[in-house]
Amino acid sequence: MKQIVKSIVVFALAISVTNCGDKKETDKYGNAVEENTETTTETSVDPLLAKGQELFEGKGTCTACHKPDAKVVGPSIKEIAKIYKEKEASIAAFINEESKPIVDPSQYDTMKTNFAITKAMTAEERKALEVYMMSFE
Ligand code: HEC
């Protein structure tokens, strides 16, 4: 009898352990999210960064002319970020036509064609694009 009670207890324990595992939250990739302070700091990454990437590749059509490493139609994102850091300039201001080109003024007319899109964006969207581009080094 004692033996049976013991195995019931073990069984119950096993179930509660499994249940506990099932209840764990998962991120969008299906990985378990640990509830400790370490991940809390990780998820506090600037939310504008993800938004900026989305706009850069989507609505902003920026990827058509700007790639991370290589010059295509426009300068690479890295080159732009480098110069904007050196000069402490604002990309958000540039794409709202509030400041002059400092990377490649000779090609400014081509970039200007995209201002129709960026000037129709909200200030927060322009800031998100800035945060995304400035994250390259
Ligand atoms: C039709 C091609 C084209 C598209 C689309 C485009 N760009 Fe550009 N961009 C250029 C060219 C060419 C330059 C180089 C001329 C210049 O420096 O102004 C440039 C330069 C820039 C610069 C540097 C400006 C400076 O100070 O000289 C920034 C910042 C920039 N683009 C951001 C963006 C963002 C953000 C988007 C999307 C919302 C975008 N571009 C979409 C062609 C494009």
TrEMBL record:
Pfam annotation, one family: Cytochrom_C
PROSITE patterns assigned: CYTC
Statement: the UniProt record of this protein carries the keyword Cell division: no
Residue ranges constituting the Cytochrome c domain according to the UniProt record: 47-137
Positions of transmembrane segments: none
Keywords: Heme, Iron, Metal-binding
InterPro entries with a match to the protein in the record: Cyt_c-like_dom, Cyt_c-like_dom_sf
Name of the protein described by the UniProt record: C-type cytochrome
Native organism taxonomy: Bacteria, Pseudomonadati, Bacteroidota, Flavobacteriia, Flavobacteriales
